[in-house]
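Progress narrative, Year 2. Work on Major facilitator family transporter from Listeria seeligeri FSL N1-067 advanced from sequence curation to structure prediction during this period.
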Amino acid sequence: MKFNTWDINLKVRLFGEALLDISFWMVFPFLTIYFSESIGRELTSILLIISQVLAVFTALLGGYFADNFGRKRMMSISVIGEGFGFLVFAIGALHVIDSPYLSFAGFTIASVFMAFYQPASQAMIADVVPPEHRTHIYSVFYMMVNIAVVIGPILGSVLFYNFTTQTLLAIVCADLLLLFLLQKFGHETAPLVINPALKQDAVRKSIGAVLIEQLKNYKVIFKDKIFFLYIIAGIIISQSFMQLDLLFPLYIKEVIGASDLFSFHFTGEQLFGVIVSINGFFVAALTVVVTRWMSHFREKFVFMNSSFLYAIAIFLFGISTGPWGAICAIILFSFAELMTVGLQQNF
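Result:
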């Protein structure tokens, strides 16, 4: 599927989300270190768990809202809420206020509204892209995210600690730009919204009823053995994958620390930014190639070997006490990630 045949929604989102993702990744990898230094490691862990639990419940509602109120509308609301959350974060980070709790409240607001975005975003792709081309489109958007992962952490490792408020305000500006693009060029694709006849037959439900219905729908997972095992494996893999953003920053800063690479000196925070960028670079550069390569193998083979490589990469991280060990681990980690891009979206 050539780019010039893409729906305008996809083109607008690709540009707007690229800018937003670069801004976001200037901040996100360093939040664990930032909040650990101001409110303590234990409390930071608890608050991060709470914010992500809230985001999970929001995601359960996201699909229903996207179907009944529209993809474009929910994406716009999500962008507004995310921008407001990071604005609160920026206010809390001001030297005259210096309130880490206000900043964390802002981050939680942003996380909750970001959870609304993905269901609508994924559904919009399903609305405008034929099934045979969806894996390719998912891969392109995934590659775009990882280009942002290359650029964002490198910039953030320099800018976030020195210009915290300004960096957060850059995210707010990116949100406003994406909102403008969605409103100016985007169009609605949700069947219930663009087809009044279908909407008349739909039954409006309360938020509580929607949550209960969504939880009941998860019974399907337990009835389908293969899908159930896929979900369980995905949860386990996600636990290790998320350590890249939560535990590794502290590990690299405190265990590996300041290091020299190719005659350049890096602090622990900057080294972590480089390692995250290496992950983003490999995924961005090789997503399409590896996705096509993996399409020649059985899904079972790909998922099993990806999990095996994840395990080896995490083990290498655990025994690494220098920068080169961590770099080798992240390269292996990146290839394990690449193996299932596209497949897991279409499974």
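Residues 223-347 form one domain. DSSP finds 18 helices and two strands in the chain.
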